[in-house]
Amino acid sequence: MTAGRRALPTLLFALCACLSPAAENSYARIGDDGITVISGNEWYLEEHDALGRPARAAEWKDGRISALTDWIYEGDAPICSSKVVTGDEGSVVTDYDSRGDEIRVERKNAAGVTLSVTERRWDGDRRETSRSVREGDVLTVEEWTYGEDGELESRRLERNGETVLTARYRSESEWTETVYLGGRAVFTQRFENGRRVAPR
Fold it and tell me: Does the pTM exceed 0.70?
């Protein structure tokens, strides 16, 4: 399954879920050339290119286009390199790597002002190793490391270059967190079975 197909607007799935033979003003069609879903006053139309990849989609509601989606590819690659969604409230541009993993998301408002930029990195096993989110003057960075067995080993969270939390994992349900204030550790808490353990 390509990233384009994985990233279909949720409206499509919502509409498909509500369609039934008895439903009025409803219609659904999936073909090599595209997808059409109609439910009442909501429409979704997706066009595919000559290679059968999602190329453009439009969503209608109450007789007007509410969102447009474009998928961009590098040559004949089956996975899109970018997806652009434009709507009344602004736009979202999502970039993908060659495996279809999300690597960058930029959100803008209707005036074209950037609201946030999210960047993500992955290792060779498709595990997320870092995520940075910039919103205005605030930059939040989260990093993860993994052990030789592939399990999560540590997590670190920083805001504007200052560490605010670190965590060390013994297992998925057991770990220790240290909270920082002003660059200094202020307290540590343990978790067992996914729940915080009261200090002894």
Answer: yes
